[in-house]
Amino acid sequence: MSAMDREWTLADFDYELPPDRIAQEPVEPADGARMMVVHVSTGEREDRFVRDLPEYLGAGDVLVVNDTRVIPARQWARRSTGGRVEVLWVEELSDGTWLALVRPRRRLRVGEVLHLGSGTATARVKEHRADGMTRLEVNSPEPLLTLLEREGHMPLPPYIRRANQGERPEDRRWYQTVFARRDGSVAAPTAGLHFTPGLLQRLEAAGVHRVAVTLHVGPGTFRPVKVECLDQHRMHEEPYEVSDEAAAAIHEARARGGRICAVGTTVTRVLETVAGPEGRIRPGRGRTDLFIRPPWQFRAVDLLLTNFHLPRSTLLMLVCAFGGRDLVLEAYREAIAKGYRFFSYGDAMLLIRRER
Known about the structure:
This protein is of the alpha/beta class. The chain is built from seven helices and 17 strands. A nine-stranded mixed β-sheet has the order 2-1-17-16-14-3-12-13-15, with helices on one face.
């Protein structure tokens, strides 16, 4: 049965990962992380380092990055009863209220007031939504983002263990890419964590053009797929933006025969969301809930730099769609055997569908 005809299930994207392979901190410098290079057409694999990326890209190619910035969105709040709840601020709505994940929220009443952080600001519960989000009305003498920069914590994924669910001082630097410009994410676009100014200079010297798109990563990246039939899974919507300049640069590069290298699954989802039938990128902004899984036909991306992802995750499904499920899971097994480091602070994989 071909990949086009097969009915994929959640179990098709499972693998066994020893806990000691989950990276708890990144390597430094960041481009010293290992990079498994996978040539999709032949199945050949190479063990390299991220700093070797300029050897696989050249003049006329375009590197597309995500310029979202992770906000220190985790905050503790106090109830009037004295109890403590954790708030993960997700997104500000057009009416000035915020969507957040509040834990525990089972006993939190609509109308209840939470005292945030040091107590200079409060948040009133306006609504508990069916999608698990709570809508909060913030009353603060300063913008919430200013307050969070001072009192919030980086929203590290749960597999990164920190004492008392806190963070290390270095996490503010480690969990932010060098491309970060626009506030809005509650999770890092982790492939971008591997880049350093020196690596970017060498890519530029090699003639590789760089453009940025934006996708603000929401909490859905941590939510497990709970249905066995993948057709029943719905992705959480995330806002994106593609500028006229970025769209034009990508189109011009493709017209000249250049290749497009997406830095991460977030960039891939943006480009595939806005790509027309012939792969032309349409500029604009919107929200995407695109769920990429086999047998997706890619229209805009020729190379994908990405991390090693969780079993049964939508991120792994996207990578399997790009590289082929059997080849990707075979590469994962090899990476485990060779001691590669997995997940957000871990090593990288470069998948090449179109060779130079």
